[in-house]
Task: structure prediction
Amino acid sequence: MMPTAAFSPRGESRTPWDRVLVTGGAGFLGSHLCTRLLDAGAEVDCLDNLCTGRAEKVAHLSGRPGFRFLERDISEPGCADALPGPYDLVLHLAGPASPAAWPKRPVDVLDTGSIGTRTALAVAARDGARFLLASSPPVRPDVRGGDVPDDADPVRPHSACAEAVRFAEALVAAHAGAHGSNAGIVRLFTGYGPGMRTDGTGTPAAAIEQALAGQPVTVPGDGSRTQPLCYVDDMVDGVLLVAAGRSVRPVDIGGDEEPTAAEIARLVIELTGSDSPLAFVEDTGNGHAEPRPVTGFAREIFGWLPSVTWQDGLERTVAALRGRPGPVPTATGEPTESRAVEGRAVEWWT
Result:
């Protein structure tokens, strides 16, 4: 299906939505989406239970006209009643970034993927809004060795995240098929940029943090594993272009450049001017091939093209981390709707 509105997400035209709900909006991508939507003229309700990300990601939006922060769990009873709307678009980003982010909370993961998605769908249906689920890529067998991924078995370690993703996608597809809901799915691959997490091994931001601190920059395995990187501005463009359409079919959004881990680490050291050495560590990828986005549908139907090279994106991310302000002071008392609070936010991806 073609997009329903002529919409350029980079600010050349006003957003086609007057009011938007972003669940998991205090996460890495969520905060960038909230900012872009506000800049384009939309009012934004940012919902987050502050569970696995940092709330300073939306601190810069505090006090901006049209922005509300709501500290709530989308999977808790009564959450829909606290979201009066009416909304024109519901972006459902709430969910686990990775199994490592939720090591001891499988029930919460499953509740978010099931109850949380059902609640977000209900809010969109109530208001006649476009609904878009931000999902993560399915884990596929390693084409090199034919291994079966661990999450093929729903009771094996770390399978809760995969089962939550699968159920959420199935629920969205069922609503679209059975009820004619204007609901779609966007599968987000490795995104990076200012505001991303720095506490994960092998991520660009973690490498930048290590280099700026003069610590060894860790590289998984022998450094040859490639990673399809997508700069956050390009990822935001893709999400909003898909949101502006009526596609039900899942749409992959991810980078088409695949630098190796060693190439990323070496460029980080160069950009930071650091004397940090490379430190090759155990590759915890369990032999699985890094998922690759298939972006032909996004390009042909939605006109999405990533425009930031991985080298330029790393340079921008280094500059942002180098000038990052200190931690946001801890909030006291009950959180209000109009401010960000210290805590951690929820997002599907790293």
